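Researcher: Please generate the 3D structure of the following complex. Treat every line as part of one assembly.
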Amino acid sequence: MKIGVFICHCGENIGRTVDCARVAKAAAFFTNVVYSVDNKYMCSDPGQNIIKQAVKDYKLDGVVVGSCSPHMHEKTFRKAVSDAGVNPFLCEIANLREHVSWVHEDKEVATGKAIDLVRFAVEKVKRNSPLTTIKVPVTKRTLVIGGGISGIQAALDVANAGYEVVLVEKEPSIGGHMSQLSETFPTLDCSQCILTPRMVEVYQHPKIKLMTYAEVESVEGFIGNFKVTIKQKARYVDADKCSGCGTCMQKCPIKKKAFSEFDEKLAFRSAIYVPFPQAVPNIPVIDTSVCTYFKNGKCSMCQKVCDREAIFFDQKDELITEDVGAIIVATGYKLYTIDKKPEESEIKGYGEYGYGKYKDVIDGLQFERIASASGPTSGEFKRPSDGKEPKKIVFIQCVGSRDESKGFSYCSKICCMYTAKHAMLYKHKVHDGEAYVFYMDIRAGGKMYEEFVRRAIEEDGVKYIRGRVSRIYEQNGKYIVKGEDTLAGVPVEIDADMVVLATAMVAQPEASKLAQTIGIPYDKYGYFVEVHPKLRPVESSSGGIFLAGACHSPRDIPECVSMASAAAAKAMVLFGSDMLEREPTVAKVNELLCAGCFYCRKVCAYNAIEIKDIRDRSGNLIKQVAYVNDGLCQGCGTCNATCPSKSVELIGYTDEQIFAEISALY
Amino acid sequence: MQIGYYPGCSQTGTAKEYDKSLRLVMNKLSAGILELNDWSCCGATSAHVTSHRLSLALSGRNLALAEKQGFKEMLAPCAACYNRLLISQHELNNSPKVKADIEEIVDCKIKGDTEIINIIQLFQKIGKEKISENIKNDLSILKAACYYGCLLVRPHDITHFDDAEEPVSMEELVKTVGAETVNWNFKTECCGAAHSVARKEIVVNLSKKIIEDARTHGANVIIVACPMCHTNLDMRQRAMKREYKDHSEMPVLYLPELIGLAMGFDNKQLGIDLHTVKFKFPELVKKSEEITV
Amino acid sequence: MQTIEDEIAEITGQNPSKCYQCGKCSAGCPIREYMEQAPNVIVRYIQLGLFDKALASSTIWLCAGCLTCSTRCPQNFDLAKFMDSVREIALRNGVKVKERALLKFHKAFLSQIKNHGRTYELGLVRDYKLATGDLFSDVDAAPDMFLKGKIGIFPHNIKGKDSIKRIFEKTGVKKCK
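Model: Done. Output below.
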């Protein structure tokens, strides 16, 4: 083998601490090295040309570059080598920057270490074999899980590019929390007015298969080749026959048993229902937990009045499989419930605010429903307890957020903005009303956000008090709010008619379960985790699965939409070619040695190891061995470390190569 | 059932009737409490306020005594003593260094495994059934505001007792003996505590607020589980009358006094006649009838 | 030479920078209206290094130790314990205490414990009244209390008085300044 060694000074980065010329000279004496040189910037075009020229002139079939981390330029140098006609996997990097010049000060010691590292790389390259990237076919369809604004945006982006999308939403209608909002900051656009056109677009789009009232049961496969099983829950209504006339809902005798989830329990709905009038699809479902028919078989009013004969009590849940190449997770958030009923609340805390005890102490989404023209009070400000118009409303920020003791230590990001919005909406409708906001800090970092909050304070007369509230209790029909203004250093007590708590945004309760089903990591809060918080924020560490929206972390609508489009773009990158290329440095099982203990299968974090039957010519089973699916394998090497018989090796990092590196030291 | 009894300094003085009624009721229930021999101040109030180590050591001495005298459980009827003993025990158990220091000072090993209980927990241990069996009088005319005060339910992660914001354990006991309870706002609001002597006006104001909130919610009696709370709510009504000309008296009973009344004991037996604000059971009935008319 | 910050950290085992000055403690403090500086301000003084202001405040003495603040603090900062330690350091460093009556009460109280092992209420009242010169408050209550036997005329001395003496000596609480 003829090896060339190229030592980069990296400007001053390496050159200041390592005597690169000396390293190059020393390398020239290593066995099999026929050419050794140093240069100021090896990754630059002239630098790369040196490599390419040397390959040609000296007929090199192995290259070692002493440079910065492989993370930076391994691709660069491999491409240069490939351009010169040599297999890119016959190029190895010795990291002389992060491993030497950035961590050592003594020039002598550093140079000695650099020489050693180059020696290791040379020994490794001697045992490298030419490898080709693994090609995996791609199914050019996308699954979007979640039909809120994030899911809708992602689905539309992918579908408009011409690829098929399957959009799965667990509620009977798409729209998510955005459809519950009254107006959105900072423009005060009517939320449903800007959302429903998108919802309809999704429904009518020829490339989007919309499955509502459905949930993802299982996900198998790997990037470009997922097989997803979706459970379509029984609506008990035939979607093809239903015309959305609404007669069944009108005639349903169950009027006061079920709380409307859409109206955040401020109103009732019937047993057969559509969550809200603008629901997409406008096809009702039956809530079997309150429906008389399902409880004791004694009512079938809806079936009787339906002139399309669309109601079927015998309908069953259905399991449907879909093949997709990419998955976008957009399952959104919910609000932290802090009421005292233990079976309903997640964290027992904030008893001092009386949420759940007092009807007029409500959370942000409930306020949105009251303020909304399509809500239980038709947009008039009426308090839940007695329907009177509140003349004094107190808004409290940071309930459950920035709270180590009874909540979550993170900031929920949107509350400062939506509280300002709430106060403004109230003041716009109730001119003589008083609005007070108790805050710790104001976080208004988006476009036109700070101006929005100033408008609330300066133009709409909302009174901001810097300090937290200790307690709320009821006295003579009013709610005594005990707070403190820390700026003036005075206690503040307000007798409010209504209190609105800006409760924390939290991950959906089933998020961790879903993450386990799909195979993506999640953090202690249930939020899904990205590969790199700065540079790869919309990808999960499972190839082909992308994240969009509040299921990742608290964020507002423009950020959700941006993230959704980004995730869609990432998915479409996969569809750019018919075959996906993957790094060939994956694990491989030597089937002759493998004893079939499958310890490797147990420790593989990527479910990349399968059981393979070895049969004789007659089809009889001889033994079962492990088999690595090179489409899923991420090359972590855990199987190699675990295998008792050393039958599974990591290509490109075989035991032989590693021992050779170590031996080179002596 | 032999539970250790740590009376605390006020049981022989200003809270004599607490001790009296407790012993009477326990006797009736055939439940034994045995006084801790040679107990001393627990370190609450002034010790805890001026020197942390002193309060630890004073508590430590009593904890050591309890262990030496073989008590697995020990009742501290005063909420301040209960709280101080628990907090000290918790700190000793969580820091070997601190424990070693205190053990050296009190010259005795402290295991820290005695269960310190308050008056409500005591009756919970005896059990609703046993208490119900012994009820003779109908107390339904009483509308009780159960006042927990500060130190029975806080800090929750050390007491692990009831709920720090909305406790209900006292109400359950009060209902068991047949009295009614009211839903009110100031269950755990501070009465002013030890400021009773040196800053009396604070106590008078805070206690007045508590009494008025109880009254607004329909209470005609307040039940307490701590001698400090009782002094502030009961004895200080004299000063309240001077400060607030229209102050109308509100009787304040200790929990065992209430239970004793249900069992058929009278005011004198229970020591209720030692209160500042008079409380006569049949008279109370008459008074409330007057009000409705 | 230990700094006051170190002293506070040592006694409370808490980090003052945890407090983000939200004011929830002050909002719920029952004694708040009687305090010159709110409880959260005392923590702020320590954060800013204004130790003299903190040690000389009346707030730390007016604190009733009701634990409302510590229970509700979102940062799990034990403010009540923090107040205890600032108080203790004020005493150690001989800071002039604003609330003289309160301090005299504590001295009178502790002196009973030291001498008898338990509170001798008459002794407490006697010492307190002599120290403050406040001879006449509660004078109306006194006869009533005596008649009801609620104020014992003679102190009860515990047997283990030596152990109490030892406790006071070892914890360095002599004749409190």
